[in-house]
Specification:
7-stranded mixed β-sheet; two-stranded antiparallel sheet; rod-shaped; DUF155; DUF155 domain-containing protein; RMD1/Sad1-interacting
């Protein structure tokens, strides 16, 4: 029995020695185990910390999905309408600058090349609908992007204000159309954005753009992923540029209303009547138009009418503000969802509501302009009528003077007619 125990494996010698307490047939069964059994026994004898449980492919994929979901929850918290971005995360800025009514896009390209920039570094192929440049040539993750649109708007992603303003105020003014030379008035709007490497889709939560930078699966390679991210930035930039251009028109319309705000009061009261103390004379003055003198002239009315028509044309005719989808998205792949990004920016910034309100304000301004033109026309017609009346009055006075003169001459005995009559009468009597 002792010899048999010596044949046992050293790692289980203690178990074999304890087999002395069992009957001989059980001891023989323990000693007849296969090597695989003893290997399993050795693994069971190891401490729990030294064991390495194998991971299946399914377990690895589940772990990857759980990690991605955890990273997604870090960026966006909450559900539905109560979603919000984690305030502890660091966000970057995307800013839109509008400094011109329109840009000559080909002149912009020439000026940017002369300034040392490379156009369309990711090969989007969207020129001349938009120009894409990067302010730095260093291949870093923090390299910013700048997009120039023909609508006169520049959108900068993760670019310092000093760099963007230099481009807007010093480089691009020669390409501006219908803008006063030497004067640049910049309208600015900005939003926050944050990159989400766990998602291929982008969205807006509150006033923060969630830019999905994960591979979309439509194309292979890291460069394709970067190009898709640039397409998403262009879509968001187009929506933000639309809002900034609308803000410029809102400011112009506010300035217009500020310059014409006294007209309704002037129309309701008119000027002070010269005979206010006498009701009879006041009524006569009103009938004669003496109390309808308003504090604006014909050049003023024509200038304000032209300003209003220019604002309405910029909103409805000369830009893509009222278009449901800009032309640059028609040739883009539908799978990228660029039109959805454009629409979500418009909804987040209330672009549709603002366009409707702007048109309603311009309708009211158009009514004021129409009343001013009618008042000007009535005043002009009134002056013509009074001119005609005065001319007729003068003619009547001359005619009365002639008749009165003839009457006096007829009654004067020493007048020429009387002397001539006497002479003729004397000649007839002398015959």
């Amino acid at each position: 029995m002792i010899c048999l125990f010596r044949l046992a494996r050293p790692s289980v010698a203690q178990g074999a020695r304890s087999a002395c307490a069992y009957p001989p047939w059980q001891t023989a069964r323990m000693l007849s185990r296969t090597p695989s059994y003893w290997k399993k026994a050795e693994q069971d004898a190891l401490p729990s910390d030294d064991k390495k449980a194998p991971r299946t492919k399914g377990q690895n994929s589940l772990r990857r999905v759980s990690l991605e979901a955890e990273r997604s929850r870090i960026v966006v918290k909450g559900r539905g309408k109560h979603q919000f971005v984690d305030p502890e995360l660091e966000t970057k800025k995307v800013a839109a600058y509008c400094a011109a009514e329109q840009y000559d896009i080909h002149t912009c390209a020439r000026l940017l090349r002369a300034d040392g920039h490379t156009l369309d570094p990711h090969g989007t192929g969207l020129y001349p609908q938009v120009i894409h440049i990067q302010p730095t040539t260093e291949p870093t993750d923090d390299a910013g992007d700048i997009f120039i649109f023909p609508s006169g708007t520049v959108v900068a992603w993760n670019v310092p204000d000093r760099t963007a303003l230099r481009l807007v105020e010093r480089v691009l003014p020669p390409a501006a159309i219908n803008s006063a030379p030497g004067f640049v008035e910049v309208e600015k709007e900005d939003l926050a954005f944050i990159s989400d490497p766990s998602s291929a889709r982008s969205t807006i939560v509150g006033d923060t753009i969630i830019l999905g930078t994960a591979p979309s699966g439509l194309r292979d390679g890291p460069s394709a992923t970067e190009t898709d991210a640039v397409f998403a930035k262009i879509a968001f930039s187009s929506g933000l540029a639309r809002s900034t251009k609308l803000a410029v028109l809102e400011r112009l319309l506010d300035t217009y209303f500020h310059s014409t705000r006294g007209i309704p009061t002037a129309l309701s009261r008119g000027s002070r009547l010269p005979f206010a103390h006498n009701p009879v004379l006041r009524r006569v003055a009103e009938v004669l138009g003496l109390g309808a003198r308003l504090p604006f002239t014909r050049p003023f009315i024509l200038r304000k009418t032209g300003e209003l028509l220019s604002i309405r044309a910029q909103l409805n005719l000369y830009s893509e503000l009222t278009d449901s989808l800009p032309d640059l998205f028609w040739d883009a792949k539908h799978e990228l969802g660029l039109e959805d990004y454009y629409d979500v920016v418009g909804r987040a910034l209330d672009v549709g509501v603002r366009i409707k309100g702007l048109n309603e304000k311009m309708d009211y301004a158009q009514e004021i302009a129409a009343v001013m033109r009618e008042t000007l026309s009535e005043r002009h017609n009134l002056r013509l009528e009074w001119g005609i009346i005065i001319l007729i009055f003068i003619e009547v006075m001359f005619e009365i003077r002639r008749l009165f003169k003839e009457y006096r001459e007829a009654q004067d005995p020493d007048s020429v007619d009387e002397l001539l009559k006497r002479y003729l009468r004397a000649q007839q009597e002398g015959r």
